[in-house]
Design a protein that fits this description.
The chain has eight helices and no strands. It is mainly alpha-helical. The chain has two domains: about 120 residues, Orthogonal Bundle (Rna Polymerase Sigma Factor, Chain: A), CATH 1.10.1740; about 80 residues, Arc Repressor Mutant, subunit A (Orthogonal Bundle), CATH 1.10.10. α5 packs across α8.
Length: about 200
């Protein structure tokens, strides 16, 4: 028996909500809130604000659900809304974050579940990882929201160029250009900082 198609399930839920069953929306929130929160937190670097912005994004999506194209991916649409909320927040407040790098963001699988292997390393490797994450955090702070978003989509979400282009509604060439620029800036920021034995930041 074939596993259920997530897109078909999402489409059915959206249709139910649009048909008057507002409570059905909870299914979509529970399915995607961990992933959306992880990515928003990667953008704003503050867990409390990330929670508020994630809720804001889901409310905004609910209020605009009639604009969702049923043939599209709900997560892609939801992600785009959440990232716009996060970027608007960053631009409005124009803040530089100094909070500790949220290593959980890079350690979660597609369902937002913490990878058990991430916590099973020896103390030396844990310390090394924390130091590297702090340096990556500082380097990410030098990027614009648009370029930071590209890095998160490629390196954290693991999206292909076409998926990123579809999500952000930009050309694949623009994705490649932004990613190249962002990686180059990160490489410049990390080349003298990476712990011994770790490879430098490279291109695709």
């Amino acid at each position: 028996m074939a596993p259920p198609d997530p897109r078909a399930e999402d489409r059915a839920v959206v249709e139910a909500v649009l048909g008057g069953d507002a409570a059905a929306y909870r299914f979509l929130v529970e399915r995607y809130q961990a992933r959306v929160y992880a990515m928003v937190c990667g953008m704003v670097r503050d867990r409390e604000e990330a929670r508020d912005l994630t809720q804001e994004a889901f409310v905004k999506a609910f209020n605009n659900l009639d604009r969702f194209r049923l043939e599209s991916s709900f997560y892609t649409w939801m992600y785009r809304i959440a990232m716009n909320v996060a970027i608007d927040h960053l631009r409005k407040h124009n803040k530089r974050r100094t909070s500790e790098f949220n290593e959980d963001v890079a350690a979660r699988d597609n369902d937002g579940v913490l990878d058990p292997g991430h916590t099973s390393m020896d103390p030396r490797k844990i310390l090394e990882r924390k130091r590297l994450h702090k340096k990556i955090h500082d380097a990410l702070e030098t990027l614009s929201p648009d370029h930071r978003q590209i890095i998160l989509l490629r390196e954290v979400e693991g999206m292909a160029y076409k998926e990123i282009a579809d999500t952000l509604e930009i050309a694949e060439g623009t994705v490649m250009s932004r990613l190249f620029y962002a990686r180059r800036k990160l490489q410049q920021a990390l080349k003298d900082e990476a712990p011994e034995g770790l490879p430098p930041v490279t291109g695709a």
